[in-house]
C-alpha cells in the first residue's frame, strides 16, 4: 500500500461501498424500465463499473506500484474477450439459425 | 580412472541426490530437482503406456481387414493413445522435468517461488494418472481424445466422466506449474539477471506458462459441462434441446489448440540452448527468438477454429481463422531462421544432443509447413480427418517435441545425474529414432492425401503397403526410444562422473556442481554477462569422452 | 564443500515467516501477491467458458430465457448482491486492520465476513429449494410448460430452451457457491490465525491475498446477478 494516511482509506472504502450499493439498486431499477435492446447494455455497463471499483479500490490495483498486476488482469480479460468475440464471430455470421 | 576413485568422488560431495535418503525424503520433498525426477519417472511410465496403445494400433493396421481387435476396441485404443500421450506425457514432459529442474538454476535462484505447490502439482498429476489408469483398466473410453459431443455426452457407453475428471485433475497440475514458473521468473531472478540476459529456455517456458494458465481453465470448465451433461442429464450441448454441439468444439479447441504450443514451445527452448552450445555461438537474433515465443503464445489463442473448418462454422468465421492460422506460423519460422543463422559459421559439434536438434529443425519444419496446407480451406476440406492430419501433428509432436525432449535429456543428463551418458550409443539411438520416425510417419502423409481416413481400423487393400511401412517404422522407433532408457539407467551406476560443465556450455546451471547441491549454488550468483557468451568460453573438448578439466 | 544454504540470516532471525528460498520478506510478499493475481487470472478464464456458453444461448433463445429468468426472485438476488458487497467492505477493513495492528477490528471484520458469506449461501439455498420444488432443475423431472414469453402474450416458452437456461443457471451459480464455500474455509483459517495473533503490520500477506480471492468471487456475482436475474424484466 502506498501513500495513504490512516484515516483516508476508511473514507474511501465506505464511499466505494455506498456507491456499489447504489449501483445495485440502479441496476434493478433500470431492469424494470423498457429500454429496448439497451437493457442488457445498461446492466452490463453498471456491472462493469462496479467490478472496476472493486478491483481498483478494494483489490488495490490503483495503488499497486507495479504494472505487472495490471498486466495480469488485462491479459486475462483480453483472452476472455478473444474467446467470446471469436466464438460470436462464428455464431453471428451463420446464415442458418 | 578406476571405479573406486569415481565412487569416492561421489561420496565426498553432498548434492541433492545424496543429501537425504529414504522414500519419505523423495515423496515429501520440496526440492524442485527431486520433483523433476519424480516427474521423470512418472511421465516415462505414461509414455510407455501411450506407446503400447500405439503399438496395438499399428499392429491392427498391418492388414486392411479389422482382424486384430473389434471396432469398439480400436476406438478405445486410439482414444487412450491420444489422451495418455497428450495429457500425461507431452504436456508435462519438458516443463515438468527439464523446466522444474532448470528454471530456478538458470535464473540463479534456490528454488521455485512456491516449492510446496510444486510438490502438489506432482501429486495432482499422479492422482489424475491413477484415475486414468483405473479408467483404462475398467473399460476405457472410445470417444477419441477430443471427446466430441453429442457422442460423448449422450451415446458413448464408456467411462467418459471418469476420464474427463482425470484430465481435469491433471489440468490443475499444469496450471500450478505454469503459475509457479511465471512468479519465479518475475520475482526470483538473481542480481544482474535481467530479462534480456535470460536463456531462451526461460523465455520459452514463460510463454508456455502463459498458455497453461489461460487455456487450461477453459478445458477444465468444458469437462465440467460434459460431465454435468452426462451424469445429470443437463442438456447444454444436446441438439434435442436446442443445444449446439459446436459450442463444445469452440470451448474444447480454445484450449486444445494452444495446448499444442504448450507441447512445442519448451522444445524450442531446448533447441536454442543446444544449438548455441554445439555451434559455439550466441543465438542469432536473441530478441527475435525471445519475442517469437511470446508471439506464439498470443497468436496460438487466436486460431482454434481451424480444427472446425468442416464442422459447421460459418464461412466468414472460417476465413478469419484461416488467415490467423497463417499468421501463427510466422513466429515459428522466425525461430527456424534464427537457429539456422546461429549455425552459419559456427563450430558445429555433432554430438547426440545436436543430432536431436538437427532432427528437430527438419521435422518440425515439415510438420509446420504441412500445417499451412491444413490452414488453407480448400485443401483442408479434402485432408481433414485423414492420415494427413495425423502425420502433420506427429511430425511436430514426435519429430519436434519428443526429439526436443530427448535432446534436452541428453544435454542436461550430466547436470541431473552427475554422470556422462555413453556418446556412441546415444548417437546410434538418435539415428534409429530419426529413421524410425520418418518411416512411421512419412507414409501417413501420402495415405491421408490419397484418402485414408483417421480413426478407422480397416482400409482398402491398396493402402496396405504404406501402412506396413508405417508399422515397420514404428517398431524401429520403439527400439530407438528404449535405448536411451537403458543407457541412462546404466550410466547412473557405471557412467563416467561428469564435471561441472562437460560441454563448456553457457548458462548459470553449468556454473555449479554436477549434480548440484540442494540449494543449487554455494553463493548467490551475480550476473554481469550476456546470455550465450560463447566467445568468452573455451572451445569444446576434441575428445568428448574425457571430462574437461576446469 | 558444504551446502550451507545462503539464506539471508538476518531475515530468518528477524522474521520467522521468511521461507528459506527467498532472499528477503519483500520478495516473499511480492511472490505471494503475484501468485494470487495470476491464479485469479486463471479463474477469469474458468468462469469465462461458462459466460461464453451463456452468451451464445441467450442470443439464440432470448424469449425463452426471458421467461425462465423471470422465475428467479429479484429481491433475493439483489439482497445477495448487497450481502456480497458488504462482505467486500468487511474484507478490505480486515486487511487495513491487519496492516495497522488493530486486532479487534481485524477479528471482527473477518467474523463479519464469514457471517455474510453464510447469509449468502443461506439465501442461495432458499432459491435452490424453490427451483427444486417447481421442477426447474434440469434433468428427468424438468417441467416448464405453459409459461408465456415476456412481451409476447401469445407465445409460450420452449421448455427445452428454458432447460438450457436452468442448466447454465445451476452450473454458474453452483460453481460460484463452491468458490464461496472455499472462501469461507479460507476465512475460517484466517480468523483462527488472527485470533492467535499471527498477523502483524510486517506480516499480513495471507489476509491480503485471501481478500483478493474474496473480492474476485464478489466480482463474479456482480456479473451473474444481472445476467441471470434481469434478462427481460420490464413490463
Q: Could you explain how this protein is built, in words?
A:
Chain A is mainly alpha-helical and about 100 residues long. Chain A has 3 helices and no strands. Chain A is flat, with a radius of gyration of 18 Å. Mean pLDDT of chain A is about 90; it is low at about 1-5. Chain B is an all-alpha fold. In chain B, about 65% of the residues lie in helices and about 0% in strands. In chain B, α5 runs antiparallel to α9 (about 200-230) and α10 packs across α15 (about 385-415). The termini of chain C are far apart. Chains in contact: A-B, A-C, B-C. At the B-C interface, α8, α9 and α10 of B face α2 and α6 of C.
SSE layout and pairing:
The complex is a heterotrimer of chains A (97), B (550) and C (235).
Chain A: H1 8-31, H2 38-58, H3 67-92
Helix pairs in contact in A: 1-2
Chain B: H1 3-12, H2 23-27, H3 32-60, H4 71-90, H5 93-107, H6 115-137, H7 151-155, H8 160-187, H9 200-232, H10 245-279, H11 286-299, H12 315-343, H13 352-375, H14 377-383, H15 387-417, H16 423-449, H17 464-494
Helix pairs in contact in B: 3-4, 3-5, 3-6, 3-17, 5-8, 5-9, 5-15, 6-8, 8-9, 9-10, 9-11, 10-12, 10-13, 10-15, 11-12, 12-13, 13-15, 13-16, 15-16, 16-17
Chain C: H1 9-14, H2 25-60, H3 62-69, H4 74-99, H5 103-133, E1 148-149, E2 152-156, H6 159-195, H7 205-229
Antiparallel strand pairs in C: 1-2
Helix pairs in contact in C: 2-6, 2-7, 3-6, 4-5, 4-7, 5-6, 6-7
Amino acid at each position: 500500500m502506498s501513500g495513504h494516511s490512516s484515516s483516508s482509506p476508511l473514507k474511501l472504502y465506505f464511499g466505494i461501498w455506498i456507491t456499489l450499493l447504489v449501483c445495485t439498486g440502479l441496476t434493478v431499477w433500470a431492469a424494470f424500465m423498457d429500454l429496448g435492446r439497451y437493457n442488457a447494455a445498461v446492466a452490463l455497463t453498471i456491472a462493469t463499473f462496479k467490478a472496476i471499483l472493486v478491483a481498483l479500490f478494494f483489490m488495490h490495483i490503483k495503488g499497486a506500484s507495479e504494472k505487472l498486476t495490471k498486466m495480469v488482469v488485462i491479459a486475462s480479460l483480453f483472452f476472455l474477450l478473444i474467446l467470446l468475440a471469436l466464438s460470436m464471430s462464428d455464431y453471428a455470421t451463420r446464415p442458418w439459425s | 580412472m578406476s571405479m573406486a576413485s569415481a565412487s569416492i568422488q561421489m561420496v565426498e560431495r553432498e548434492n541433492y541426490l545424496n543429501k537425504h535418503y529414504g522414500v519419505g525424503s523423495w515423496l515429501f520433498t520440496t526440492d524442485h530437482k527431486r520433483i523433476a525426477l519424480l516427474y521423470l519417472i512418472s511421465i516415462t511410465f505414461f509414455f510407455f503406456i501411450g506407446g503400447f496403445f500405439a503399438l496395438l494400433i499399428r499392429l491392427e493396421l498391418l492388414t486392411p481387414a479389422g482382424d486384430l481387435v473389434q471396432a469398439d476396441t480400436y476406438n478405445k485404443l486410439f482414444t487412450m493413445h491420444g489422451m495418455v500421450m497428450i495429457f500425461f506425457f507431452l504436456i508435462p514432459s519438458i516443463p515438468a522435468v527439464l523446466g522444474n529442474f532448470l528454471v530456478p538454476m538458470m535464473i540463479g535462484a534456490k528454488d521455485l517461488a512456491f516449492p510446496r505447490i510444486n510438490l502438489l502439482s506432482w501429486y495432482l498429476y499422479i492422482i489424475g494418472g491413477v484415475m486414468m489408469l483405473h479408467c483404462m483398466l475398467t473399460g476405457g473410453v472410445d470417444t477419441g481424445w477430443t471427446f466430441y459431443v453429442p457422442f460423448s455426452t449422450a451415446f458413448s457407453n464408456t467411462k467418459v466422466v471418469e476420464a474427463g475428471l482425470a484430465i481435469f485433475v491433471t489440468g490443475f497440475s499444469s496450471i500450478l506449474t505454469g503459475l509457479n514458473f511465471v512468479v519465479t521468473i518475475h520475482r526470483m531472478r538473481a542480481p544482474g539477471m535481467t530479462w534480456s540476459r535470460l536463456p531462451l529456455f526461460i523465455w520459452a517456458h514463460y510463454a508456455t506458462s502463459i498458455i497453461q494458465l489461460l487455456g487450461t481453465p477453459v478445458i477444465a470448465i468444458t469437462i465440467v459441462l460434459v460431465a454435468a451433461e452426462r451424469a445429470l442429464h443437463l442438456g447444454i450441448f444436446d441438439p434435442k434441446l436446442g443445444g449446439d454441439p459446436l459450442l463444445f468444439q469452440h470451448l474444447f479447441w480454445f484450449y486444445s489448440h494452444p495446448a499444442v504450443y504448450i507441447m512445442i514451445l519448451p522444445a524450442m527452448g531446448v533447441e536454442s540452448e543446444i544449438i548455441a552450445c554445439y555451434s559455439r555461438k550466441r543465438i542469432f537474433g536473441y530478441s527475435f527468438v525471445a519475442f517469437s515465443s511470446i508471439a506464439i503464445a498470443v497468436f496460438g489463442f487466436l486460431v482454434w477454429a481451424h480444427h472446425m473448418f468442416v464442422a459447421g462454422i460459418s464461412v466468414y468465421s472460417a476465413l478469419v481463422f484461416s488467415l490467423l492460422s497463417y499468421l501463427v506460423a510466422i513466429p515459428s519460422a522466425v525461430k527456424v531462421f534464427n537457429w539456422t543463422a546461429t549455425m552459419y559459421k559456427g563450430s558445429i559439434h555433432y554430438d547426440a544432443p545436436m543430432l536431436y536438434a538437427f532432427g528437430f529443425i527438419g521435422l518440425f519444419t515439415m510438420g509446420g509447413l504441412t500445417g499451412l496446407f491444413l490452414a488453407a480451406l480448400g485443401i483442408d476440406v479434402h485432408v481433414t480427418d485423414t492420415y494427413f492430419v495425423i502425420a502433420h501433428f506427429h511430425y511436430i509432436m514426435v519429430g519436434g517435441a519428443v526429439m526436443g525432449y530427448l535432446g534436452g535429456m541428453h544435454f542436461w543428463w550430466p547436470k541431473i545425474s552427475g554422470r556422462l551418458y555413453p556418446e556412441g550409443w546415444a548417437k546410434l539411438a538418435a539415428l534409429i529414432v530419426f529413421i524410425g520416425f520418418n518411416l512411421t510417419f512419412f507414409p501417413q502423409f501420402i495415405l491421408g492425401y490419397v484418402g485414408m481416413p483417421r480413426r478407422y481400423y480397416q482400409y482398402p487393400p491398396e493402402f496396405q503397403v504404406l501402412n506396413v511401412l508405417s508399422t515397420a517404422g514404428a517398431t524401429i522407433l520403439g527400439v530407438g526410444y528404449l535405448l536411451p532408457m537403458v543407457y541412462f539407467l546404466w550410466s547412473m551406476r557405471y557412467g563416467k562422473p561428469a564435471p561441472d560443465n562437460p560441454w563448456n556450455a553457457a548458462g548459470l546451471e553449468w556454473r555449479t556442481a554436477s549434480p548440484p547441491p540442494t540449494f543449487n549454488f554455494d553463493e548467490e550468483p551475480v550476473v554481469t554477462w550476456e546470455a550465450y557468451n560463447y566467445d568468452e568460453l573455451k572451445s569444446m573438448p576434441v575428445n568428448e569422452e574425457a571430462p574437461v578439466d576446469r | 564443500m558444504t551446502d550451507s544454504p545462503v539464506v539471508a540470516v538476518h531475515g530468518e532471525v528477524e522474521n520467522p515467516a521468511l521461507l528459506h528460498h527467498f532472499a528477503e520478506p519483500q520478495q516473499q510478499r511480492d511472490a505471494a501477491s503475484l501468485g494470487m493475481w495470476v491464479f485469479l487470472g486463471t479463474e477469469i478464464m474458468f468462469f469465462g467458458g461458462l459466460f461464453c456458453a451463456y452468451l451464445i444461448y441467450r442470443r439464440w433463445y432470448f424469449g425463452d430465457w426471458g421467461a425462465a429468468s423471470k422465475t428467479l426472485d429479484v429481491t433475493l438476488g439483489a439482497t445477495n448482491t448487497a450481502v456480497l458487497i458488504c462482505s467486500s467492505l468487511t474484507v478490505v477493513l480486515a486487511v487495513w486492520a491487519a496492516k495497522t495492528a488493530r486486532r479487534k477490528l481485524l477479528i471482527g471484520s473477518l467474523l463479519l465476513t464469514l457471517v455474510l458469506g453464510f447469509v449468502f449461501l443461506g439465501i442461495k439455498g432458499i432459491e435452490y429449494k424453490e427451483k427444486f420444488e417447481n421442477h426447474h432443475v434440469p434433468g428427468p423431472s424438468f417441467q416448464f410448460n405453459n409459461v408465456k414469453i415476456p412481451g409476447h402474450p401469445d407465445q409460450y416458452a420452449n421448455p427445452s430452451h428454458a432447460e438450457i437456461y436452468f442448466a447454465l443457471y445451476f452450473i454458474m451459480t453452483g460453481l460460484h457457491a463452491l468458490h464461496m464455500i472455499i472462501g469461507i474455509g479460507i476465512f475460517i483459517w484466517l480468523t483462527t490465525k488472527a485470533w492467535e495473533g499471527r498477523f502483524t503490520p510486517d506480516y499480513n500477506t495471507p489476509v491480503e491475498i485471501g481478500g483478493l480471492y474474496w473480492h474476485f468471487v464478489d466480482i463474479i456475482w456482480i456479473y451473474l446477478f444481472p445476467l441471470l436475474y434481469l434478462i427481460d424484466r420490464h413490463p
